[in-house]
Amino acid sequence: MTVAAQPPVCDIAVVTFEQMWRDLEPVGRDRRTTGYVRSPFASAERECAAWYAEEAGRRGLELEYDGQGNAVAWWRPRVGVNTTSAAAGDAILVGSHLDSVDQGGAFDGPLGVVSSFAAIDRLRESGFTPTRSVGVAMFVEEEGSRFGIACLGSRLATGRIEAAEAAQLRDRDGVFLLDAMTAAGLEPQLGPSSLLADVGCFVELHVEQGRDLVDRGRAVAMASSSWAHGRWRFDFGGQPNHAGATRMEDRHDPMLTYAMTALAANKQARLTDARATFARVDVEPNITNAIPSRVRAWLDARGADAAQVDELVATVTRQAGERATRDGTRLEVTTESVVPTVDFDLALSRRLAALLEDAPLIATGAGHDAGILQLAGIPAAMIFVRNPTGISHSPDEFAQTADCLVGIEALASVIEELAS
Ligand code: GLV
Ligand code: MN
Ligand code: MN
Hints:
binds manganese (II) ion, Alpha-Beta Plaits, binds glyoxylic acid
């Protein structure tokens, strides 16, 4: 089946997509800003997880959890269907994540999960029966918004973070990961997960986070690669002192060292066609009339390849150090997480792109669970759905229903191709 540019009008997928979207829409939405706060293991995100379990149950899918917040809802081949060609390791995984960044949009993550359920509805209505297991995944803490490590759930499931290291993670209130899991009703068990044991490939549908598809006038694309990226913590220490009584030349102000570092990162990224963002800052004591004792800021740096990112971080660190010397402040830089460039499985992506009216292959500056699975040796591909605003990690993130339906149709045809 090739995918029509226009979605079919009277399709079960339209009905179930719209119903699921309506159900999820209010969960975790901040009425004041219209942004979403679905922080891992906290109430809104748990409500999303309960919604996921309900949708799986409604469809008779077999739910499997891994003790650290990840889950797969399996659509198993019917007993009696000839599955002799399906070896262990042949299962097809779709799905995405349900957590959000703080004040994020509605689509980043949920669109992939909702579309996966709708694609199954669409296939079932057409009479299709898979000869391989098809799983709808829900990965936990994809954004790293609570515990600081992006794609924490898929990293744990694939062993790309040690359980012992993860057990040391705390949120901003000092709550340990294991305690957050326990408080959410889990019996935590960290480490490589049997959920992925039979998975032969992962196809993650995701809202596009830029304007590439708008510019191309296309509703969907496949991902070619995702950029290298990482997070670095910059700790600037200074001399706390009175804002009025301290002469300007006598100050050791870490805020100034930080401010210059943020400008240097911006300049360096522009010069090298990379990305650099300081968006999170903690200041102590954070009062108006005293020079701070400490500024802690996080650099998110990204680039087409890892060497470019390494060079950017090294340059910014050197410039920050030089400025710290001039300011009489102290600097310490800690790497919190890194992901290399991920090339998605080319054969799989090309095969799927050909199904989707030769959908373009585009690179992304965002990180995804699909990237982590690909790095762990599970062939992965991604389908992007056009975002007319081009904005993401913001309440303005958007996708038109018509484009989402094209995405569902694309996902259904991909599942049909892979699970026949
Ligand atoms: C996740 O969306 C990221 O790229 O930070
Ligand atoms: Mn995402
Ligand atoms: Mn995101």
